[in-house]
Fold this sequence. Notes:
alpha+beta, six-stranded antiparallel β-sheet, 43% helix, 17% strand, disordered N terminus
Amino acid sequence: MTNRRPPAGEAEAPPPATAPSATAERYLEAIFYIEGEGEAVHASRLAEWLGVSQPTVGAMLRRMAADGLVRTSAAKVVTLAPRGVALASRIVRRHRIAERWLTDVVGLDWAAADDEASRLSHALSDAVADRLFELIGRPTACPHGNPIPGVDAPRGAERPLSSLAAGERSKVRRISEVAEHEAPELLRFLGGQGFRIGVDVEASAISRGAGTFTARVEGKDVPMSLDVAGRVWVDA
């Protein structure tokens, strides 16, 4: 499972006559991230993510649909229209480039970098983001392992850490973008326990009935819930 990228040609869709508002950009980014984790996007999910009421979400989605940014199915599932995919990809690209600059150059940890990048990404122009991208060495992913849109880099199969059987080993591939947003303390917890992209990890003990999972990282057992383990993606 990978984050959604615009098919060839769609990313070059012309911008709308008027640029989307900062609020619309937040909606586009949220839909992009939730879709990227394989979840169906409903108005209730967006209301939860954005901290607003469902009527507020409904009104905003109607405006965005009129602007050709989103579509809503008969089953009330929200998806990005081609123009929405192109715009969301640019927003997420700016965010993830900003994160890499903040960690690689400024020296922030990955939790603080994500928080700061959430603000910076809506202020950066695409031109400045592209310049930063070149200056920091054209990275393929953000500090948490999620791919930077517009970078054509091969990515192997992946699966959640929670799917490993006891005694099975793998390497950490990425941390869910949904987890980054909904549980920023999770990034601090994982970083403090030795989790990082590419680190070896082993399923030490699992109790699916109790909903617990223990991972061994750098010789240390790290207990967590199965839900948390499901937010860490490893090599398949």
